Amino acid sequence: MRIGLMGFGKTGKAVAEELLKDSGSRLEWVLKSSTEHSGNYASEVLGHGSRQGLIYSIQEVDLATFFKKHPVDIMVDFSSADSVHCYASAAHAKVRIVSAISNYSPYQLDVLKHASRSTAILYSPNITIGINFLLEASKFLKTIIPHADIEIVEEHFATKKDISGTAVRIADQLGLNEREHIHSVRVGGIVGKHEIIFGLENQTIRLVHESISRNAFGQGALYAAKWLSSKTAGLYTMEEVLGINAGQRRTALKSS
């Protein structure tokens, strides 16, 4: 499976590490916003002996022809929300896309949905396997105790500015106002931790997921990419990858 990667920051590098370790795939190229490391191989930058993942700067390529000149089966995107404007060119070249962007604007989400008419796209704000099970568990728990108070605490590294897209997704799925029920903590080098607290009169129930390493995102992306490799054009979710209420989730995302 030939894979292209968008984004080569801290998370992008961790994702590249996982792709390089997988014997069933090959990292063909990395596309990034800056010119740093342009012309080098991601594998060499990361200290691996093989020559995989030639790095290109988006400033130096013609996106209209890039995906045809450098064919891959799957593109994994860990860059920024603005990269969605590359999706039409990728879709035209029949490249399937795994999008792990935390926050899209309504307009950007429409662009993503439009591209999914031409190729298979899997979109998940948090692509780790565990967080998706956490979300489903919290929804099930709410059906059992609908009268409970619910609060969401999300913790991330000190330099993260935006509210967690995963926390927003959890709030939306639980029918909560994100401004009132999400509490953000920014300290040190926390990769990502989400806690959902259900408060009852004499007890609390806490569901917690924590990413110990950014490599968890790479493992989730690789798992999703292998699943997506056989899919036809359309918009898919991580819930479908994991077999969790697939039909309901896909219908909800398409109609949103």
UniProtKB/TrEMBL annotation:
Is NADP set as a keyword in this record?
A: yes
GO:BP terms for this protein? diaminopimelate biosynthetic process; lysine biosynthetic process via diaminopimelate
Source organism superkingdom: Bacteria
Q: What are this entry's molecular-function GO terms?
A: 4-hydroxy-tetrahydrodipicolinate reductase
Q: In which pathway does it act?
A: Amino-acid biosynthesis; L-lysine biosynthesis via DAP pathway; (S)-tetrahydrodipicolinate from L-aspartate: step 4/4
As its record notes, the protein acts as a catalyst of: (S)-2,3,4,5-tetrahydrodipicolinate + NAD(+) + H2O = (2S,4S)-4-hydroxy-2,3,4,5-tetrahydrodipicolinate + NADH + H(+); (S)-2,3,4,5-tetrahydrodipicolinate + NADP(+) + H2O = (2S,4S)-4-hydroxy-2,3,4,5-tetrahydrodipicolinate + NADPH + H(+)
Q: Which family does it belong to?
A: Belongs to the DapB family.
Protein name, per record: 4-hydroxy-tetrahydrodipicolinate reductase
Q: Which organism is it from?
A: Brevibacillus fluminis
